[in-house]
Design goal:
This protein has 9 helices and 4 strands. By secondary structure, it is of the alpha+beta class. The protein has a 4-stranded mixed β-sheet with strand order 2-1-3-4, with no helix packed on it. Residues 219-225 have low confidence and may be disordered. The protein is 46% helix and 11% strand. β1 and β2 (99-108) form a beta hairpin. The relative contact order is 0.15.
């Protein structure tokens, strides 16, 4: 049926990746992008939030879905051929929890970029889920803040108490060294398509009030014409 994907098609591929990752903890994957096909893209679209704010192009999910399969195929072709251009994220500021007079920046990708990022996430998750420690909870499927607190409480009980340090690193993601990120990624992933896409996202920059800024650790900043 047009516009639908088979969940078993994607899950079977993810299981194969997870098995390879588990059996080879020191192995670097050189071929991951071949798993991403049109059904994979349809599954990525299905998992992408439809009611989120629009990116720099102003396109909504409803508009993108008018020619969904054609749009996804075109996106897939550009991603694999290297012609995909990552647009900058649109930055907005939202109230910071617990600080009524402070805000925190939020980057909003375009809807198409969200789909492609989701597709790449879906191929990377099976690799890294085999590597992560059980005490790691951030941005992992089926995990969240409540589980992290339960794990912390259990560890404290097992140790008979102790000190807990709550640290908030201001502007951490704006200043993290992209070179370190790339080198860490290459320990497990050496697929050229995946590395190229992630590199483009790291270099895409942020658009705020018509001004494009990039991270000081970008090696190839680009101007917005």
């Amino acid at each position: 049926m047009p516009g639908t994907s088979r969940p078993d098609h994607v899950s079977t591929k993810q299981q194969r990746i997870a098995e390879l990752a588990g059996n080879g903890p020191d192995m670097a994957f050189t071929t991951l992008a071949h798993h991403i096909d049109i059904e994979w893209m349809l599954a990525a679209h299905a998992r992408t939030r439809k009611d989120g704010a629009v990116g720099v192009d102003g396109q909504t999910a409803d508009e993108y879905e008018v020619n969904l399969e054609a749009n996804l195929q075109h996106l897939l072709d550009r991603a694999k051929s290297g012609t995909y251009v990552a647009p900058p994220v649109r930055r907005v500021h939202i109230p910071k929890a617990g600080s009524p007079h402070e805000t925190r920046p939020l980057g909003i990708p375009t809807y198409e970029d969200k789909i492609l990022q989701r597709a790449v996430l879906m191929v990377l998750e099976p690799v890294y889920e085999t590597d992560f420690l059980d005490v790691s909870h951030g941005f992992r499927p089926g995990r969240g803040a409540h589980g992290a607190l339960q794990s912390l409480w259990q560890q404290e009980m097992d140790m008979g108490g102790g000190w807990i340090a709550d640290v908030d690193l201001r502007r951490f993601f704006d200043t993290i060294d992209h070179g370190h990120l790339r080198e860490f990624l290459k320990r497990r992933v050496r697929d050229g398509v995946i590395l190229r896409l992630i590199g483009k996202w790291l270099n895409a920059g942020v658009l705020e009030e018509g001004v494009l800024t990039t991270s000081p650790f970008n090696t190839s900043p680009r101007a917005l014409s």
